[in-house]
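Hey, I was hoping to borrow your eyes for a little while. No rush at all, and the record is pasted right below.
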Amino acid sequence: MQRLSAHFFVLTVTLSLLSPLLNAGTIQVGSGRQYQRLQQATAVAKPGDTILLDAGVYSGGDYIENLHGTTDAWIFIRAEQPGTVLFRGNTQAFHISEASYLRIEGLAFEQQTGNGVNIDDGGTYNTPTHHLHIENCEWRSMNATGNNDELKLSGIDDFTITRCTFRNGSEGGSMIDMVGCHRGSFTNNRFENAGSNAIQAKGATSEITIHANRFINCGQRAVNVGGSTGLQFFRPLGALYEAKNISVTANIFTGSVTPIAFVGAVDCSVHNNTFYKPTRWAFRILQETTETGFLPCGNNSVRNNIIVLGNTGTVAINVGANTAPETFTFEYNLWFNPDNPMWTGPNTPVVEPTRILNKDPMFTDTLSFAITQSSPAFKAGKPTSAEPVYDFNNARYNTPRSMGAVEFPVASHVDDDMETSVLLYPNPATGTLSMTAMQPVALLRIINLLGEEECTDQTRGVTLEAGETLRLNCSGLARGVYMLSLRNSSGGTLVRMLHRE
């Protein structure tokens, strides 16, 4: 009788945990459907539901609020087929306020006159929108010239933007503008032809990872680490910095007036990137918010980068007033000016004895920016540097690592179907992470941002056949971001981001 009761208890608990998923449904949106606008569908969506948009052009202008999934039952907004759902025109495609556990996938946007997509906390700073995942979306263009952003994020915590494309931004705006956002990552995205910025992190934005993205001609400041924000918009209120703990790693920058600007930023890092021919400066150190008690821009590090200047008139570094450039760290960077063989070096604000000066990094081409063993950048990075673990192509950095975004040897291309070969849920995870294989895969490792392997007792030597599910106990992992490395039967590799809540 006791054993029967125990089994009944386990069954009851299991069914209660699964009930959100068992009750989940698909809500179709499109011409001729019960719901013809996204806003109508979100009004009836429940945790675990998928809102599936039919192929077509949508006029936008939807306002969506209080859309909440749960940690085990996210709400999905998806295109029936990626790239076939286009939100065209209107002031904005849609505005989402007060949301959580939400995934947006496969949508395209163009010709908005305000902000392309606006997601915020509804002005309730103590209840941010959280656990947001945007993947495989495309911003094609803006129909604006002012301070208009393709993706506006205000008061968002615990979020991921991955494998998206941003093109043709507003002349005075950002492709992604963050105000008071925390614990987010931007990985494997492409940014092209920005106005002012590709990514801007300001208003007390912190704990952001910008990793393995490509930036092409991205305006005045491709990545604006900081900025200028009215103090009443800071999240949290009273913060004394525009940006803190922003990590910019393994990205490729081509063109832009300046690829990186530190503006009222503290404790930020720019490591293992490749910068190719900025048109005016490689880096700027600035301060735009100068209220009493506000921290000066300082304590930031620039390490293991390859910087190729555009011409003899390009100045490496611009330092503005009210900053603390003497607190910066510049080390193990390769600086090359192909137009001036007699160049005496960059005007770094601190001495950089470990730099490599005016040696050709010997890129194999200016698309991949790969190096060979003959490059002076090969294994010339800081020997004790632990991050980033993976390069632009998701290849593991050598020990010692090379400088720049692309390690040698160059990783083989990831199979097209690898991206959908494994389902991870819930992600972010709390106690248990389930991993269901859609094709045979081998689990290689789980690595934290210091390059240390985790969960080795559960992952070493594990292989999964199609349809098999592995459940990992994540309770021993500290809160943060981890990298899950997989390989399929044909040798293709994939790195997925795992978030431990």
In short: The chain is about 5% helix and 40% strand. The CA atoms of residues 379 and 401 lie 5 Å apart.
